[in-house]
Amino acid sequence: MDKRGVDTCKCWPLSLHYFFYFSLLGTILPYLGLYFNSLAFTPVEIGELLAVLMLTKVVAPNIWGIFSDRSGKPVFWVRVATFGALVLSAGLILFDSYWPLLFTLLLFSFFWHSSLPQFESYTFKRLGEDKHRYGQIRLWGSLGFIVAAVSLGWLFDRFGIAILPWAMSLLLLVVWLSTYLVKEQRFTEHAEHHSQHFLAIVRRPEVLSLLIVSFLVQASHGVYYSFFSIQMSELGISKTLISWLWALGVFAEIAVFWWMAALFRQYALRSLILIAIVLTVIRWVMTGQLDHYLYWILVAQLLHAASFGLFHASAIHLIDRYFTGAHHGKGQALFAASSHGLGGAVGMLTAGYAWQAGGAPLSYALMALSATFALVIAWRWVR
């Protein structure tokens, strides 16, 4: 591809799609648990429903990765996946009981989780020699998350959480339409880039350890993504203020994405990953033990810059380095499946049972333990 760099005007469709994609995430993560809580589901049921939402990410991105790599048309498969999610989101409007919602989430999430890894792969290929600019494009996704979380928090305080499914479907329509602003592009791969068998790459100690560490770090976010809004609501905090707490974490994440290129020039990726995991452990201890003090919750939310922003940016760059050529889409899909998929599902399922058994202190203690295991493995094997 053209090595002259990436002109800003050619990247705005990528930024716009990230903005709307993560606007939907800014609708789901802060409020879906609260919505299920309003339907009188138990903590275990909420954990199970949210775990199902993440579980399909183990399989779906890998299937879509094969289709995308073989066809050489990643944007086409992003459009198909997004349209499927749009159609199936109607089930969230139609149903309000456990089993219909579970099956709706199972089908909806299969398509929803298929799109992002392929779009990430496309973005990295599109950037070419300018991969350091990924953070400046991806930060628009974080801005979308903030806009959705804050504006919907205000709406839910005034009109009730019951309008959540309608908001999700409307945003999905916009996400799907935004894919048609992205130009399909084929990329020429050099033979040496994919001479090594895919499974041989996965079995390399540094690759396998990174996948395990990503699983444990994402699993440690299970309580936060499932019950943080419920936790704050039970402490008497309004949905508007809860939305700003979520936004604060994402503002911190944006700072990491903005300065990512400078960080990567000055520090080794391994060092950044280790720092991120140490701060993740501290974050969960603070959130579980000091939740009655708003000041400490504000500090803990700022640590989202490390637990998600710094870790994700560093890990995805290593994945881009490990999986090249014809394996690039499958590599991104495997990373998504092992971390946000399996890790997210296990973390949220554990969160439901832990919350019912011991509330916030027990739940966040288990999350801190998961991150501690990740730290040990990363220290020993991640390179």
From TrEMBL:
<dbReference type="InterPro" id="IPR036259">
    <property type="entry name" value="MFS_trans_sf"/>
</dbReference>
<dbReference type="Pfam" id="PF12832">
    <property type="entry name" value="MFS_1_like"/>
</dbReference>
<feature type="transmembrane region" description="Helical">
    <location>
        <begin position="12"/>
        <end position="34"/>
    </location>
</feature>
<keyword id="KW-1003">Cell membrane</keyword>
<feature type="transmembrane region" description="Helical">
    <location>
        <begin position="293"/>
        <end position="313"/>
    </location>
</feature>
<feature type="transmembrane region" description="Helical">
    <location>
        <begin position="139"/>
        <end position="156"/>
    </location>
</feature>
<feature type="transmembrane region" description="Helical">
    <location>
        <begin position="334"/>
        <end position="355"/>
    </location>
</feature>
<feature type="domain" description="Major facilitator superfamily associated">
    <location>
        <begin position="12"/>
        <end position="363"/>
    </location>
</feature>
<dbReference type="InterPro" id="IPR026032">
    <property type="entry name" value="HcaT-like"/>
</dbReference>
<keyword id="KW-0997">Cell inner membrane</keyword>
<feature type="transmembrane region" description="Helical">
    <location>
        <begin position="207"/>
        <end position="228"/>
    </location>
</feature>
<dbReference type="GO" id="GO:0005886">
    <property type="term" value="C:plasma membrane"/>
</dbReference>
<keyword id="KW-1133">Transmembrane helix</keyword>
<protein>
    <submittedName>
        <fullName>MFS transporter</fullName>
    </submittedName>
</protein>
<dbReference type="GO" id="GO:0015528">
    <property type="term" value="F:lactose:proton symporter activity"/>
</dbReference>
<feature type="transmembrane region" description="Helical">
    <location>
        <begin position="361"/>
        <end position="382"/>
    </location>
</feature>
<keyword id="KW-0472">Membrane</keyword>
<feature type="transmembrane region" description="Helical">
    <location>
        <begin position="101"/>
        <end position="119"/>
    </location>
</feature>
<feature type="transmembrane region" description="Helical">
    <location>
        <begin position="240"/>
        <end position="260"/>
    </location>
</feature>
<keyword id="KW-0812">Transmembrane</keyword>
<feature type="transmembrane region" description="Helical">
    <location>
        <begin position="76"/>
        <end position="95"/>
    </location>
</feature>
<keyword id="KW-0813">Transport</keyword>
<feature type="transmembrane region" description="Helical">
    <location>
        <begin position="162"/>
        <end position="182"/>
    </location>
</feature>
<feature type="transmembrane region" description="Helical">
    <location>
        <begin position="267"/>
        <end position="287"/>
    </location>
</feature>
<dbReference type="GO" id="GO:0030395">
    <property type="term" value="F:lactose binding"/>
</dbReference>
<dbReference type="InterPro" id="IPR024989">
    <property type="entry name" value="MFS_assoc_dom"/>
</dbReference>
<feature type="transmembrane region" description="Helical">
    <location>
        <begin position="46"/>
        <end position="64"/>
    </location>
</feature>
